[in-house]
Specification:
Chain lengths: 222, 222
DNA sequence: AAAAATTTTTAGATTTGTCTAAAATTATTT
DNA sequence: AAATAATTTTAGACAAATCTAAAAATTTTT
């Protein structure tokens, strides 16, 4: 049925998927950076993945996963995120420490295992970082977007869009280091003026106005 | 702190441990058989494990794990059995199907992960097959031995010893395929004459007398 | 549009783990 | 104790994944 890929191949597939999400076409050096390897190694693997019909690749002109490559990437990401969810909710590990372990667990690829794990965890829609978990068919769940001020306290989520794209807004977002894809959570709300204390990953907590929060949309499951 | 071993090295270590449990000295061909590989490959790996100071090895004269090799083996076995326990009790998989998956999971070697998994599972003393789970210090738990007739119904266990070593007894044990290390469980007891219907792995169910059962000892946790 | 700089690919080596076939050693028969 | 058989090791090759250094192609600068 489904083809087996080596651990190394899986890591390449996953990285290409992540990078092409933003730029559509991926180039050799950025992938080498992302995987902490050398450009020459990337070229070698690209040839291999091409013969396995997972990507479109024209020498010197970049590459991208085709449909079956993307499908495979989503299967790997699904495993990764389910394990992260398990590590945090069942074993009580901290989010910021689960990634490395999930990176190893994701390569254990029994379909039955993953289906059962998913059920056991209650078919979660997002991982502990707020990233959506693809379903069994490799489809990303359609997540509701809510303004940041409606996100439950301390619940981690991912910034999905920003409604007001004025210069002033962008300047402020930039200042706080908030962008599409940022991991974010609300630590506290101040009823007095509707402002919120928030935390963006790898940055100190800060306070933003209620008006700003109303214009920052984040994913929320269910 | 603790040295990391490759997946392949870990598989060799584990197999040697299993084989030397029975015969103390292990020979090249039996290890090759056990690992489904060739004698030449075994010799290559032996050299490697010797330089890593995990085993005593004299050319042409067999080999055995030394203390640090045994310790490493027990760490791997601990991981394997904890994962088997998880797969059966939490994910509801069948015993006879968990081995292959645990075989992959056991190589994920974060100490923190295993400590948490152990706690989460309630620090089990035996895996679902009845095999004891080494503790965090690599020590096999001292398990109580009970006669087979006192083992709870349907609870899987491992034959630990046989009290009456008469020829007649041995003949019968042989006939049923029961030996030290056999995985066994009691399906049913017949009050009429105290006989028991039992199941030994990979063999059809059979019935033995109450007297026989009293002389077959098995491990029981707690 | 040449020259310079950057990016990507190729060529050839290296490491890990495996294999086959042949040689060396040990064990068993006669 | 020689001859034969079985086991184990060595020698040399191979595949996967990586690397360095050099060559080729593309992009940017002047």
């Amino acid at each position: 049925m489904s083809v087996k890929f080596s651990e190394s191949e899986e890591n390449y597939i996953k990285s290409i998927y992540t990078l092409q999400g933003k730029t559509e076409k991926v180039n050799t050096n950025s992938l080498a950076d992302h995987l902490n390897t050398r450009a020459a190694s990337v070229t070698d693997m690209l040839k291999k993945l091409k013969t396995k019909k997972l990507l479109e690749y024209k020498k010197y002109y970049g590459f991208r996963l085709n449909d079956s490559g993307k499908k495979e990437a989503l299967r790997i990401i699904r495993r990764h995120r389910l394990w992260e969810f398990f590590l945090v909710t069942k074993l009580g590990m901290d989010w910021d420490k689960v990634h490395a372990i999930a990176e190893e667990l994701e390569h254990v690829s029994s379909n039955d295992l993953i289906k059962r794990l998913d059920n056991y965890l209650g078919q979660p829609k997002t991982d502990p970082h707020g990233d959506p978990i693809p379903d069994d068919n490799g489809i990303m769940p359609v997540l509701k977007q809510v303004p940041l001020n409606e996100l439950p306290l301390k619940k981690s989520s991912i910034v999905s869009s920003v409604s007001s794209q004025t210069n002033q807004m962008m300047e402020m977002l930039n200042h706080y280091g908030i962008g599409i894809g940022s991991q974010i959570k609300v630590l506290k709300t101040f009823d007095f003026d509707g402002s919120l204390q928030i935390k963006i990953s790898r940055q100190p907590a800060c306070v933003i106005s209620g008006l700003a929060a109303k214009n920052i949309f984040v994913y929320d499951d269910n």
